[in-house]
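Internal tracking record. Fields below are filled automatically when a chain is submitted to the structure queue. Please do not edit lines marked as system-generated. If the sequence contains nonstandard residues, flag them in the REMARKS field before resubmitting.
Queue: standard
Priority: normal
Entity type: single polypeptide chain
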Amino acid sequence: MPAKGTAEWKGELRSGAGTFSAGDTIHGDFSFRSRFEDGPGANPEQLLAAAHASCFSMALSNTLAQAGTPAESVRTDAVVTLRPLDGTPTITSIALNVVGVVPGIDEAAFREFAEQTKTGCIVSRALAAVPEVTVEATLEG
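SYSTEM-GENERATED OUTPUT FOLLOWS
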């Protein structure tokens, strides 16, 4: 099933504005300020962070279930960092912080499953060009 998103930008880079949609229910505005100056609105890196966090949570839940230790919940926060690299804005790192509620597993095993998932998650594979992707995994409760 293809996933669809659209975006439109009007005007010049610094003074223009854009709108986006993802699927039927996600819509937002973006601008130069929202992307590069912490202004109001969304930006593409936030959408990447949400996509990566969503995919990682699903993938880790599947990995745990296949190992016979199904999760009650897996929550992932993703931080995508955009910095100049050789004078060009570049996504230089993604930090994943995952917290799981997984009965019958210890913290070391949970961390190992999270590290395995880092390379197996569909969005992780799509973002393989990002120089640094880290995973911090902890169990809750």
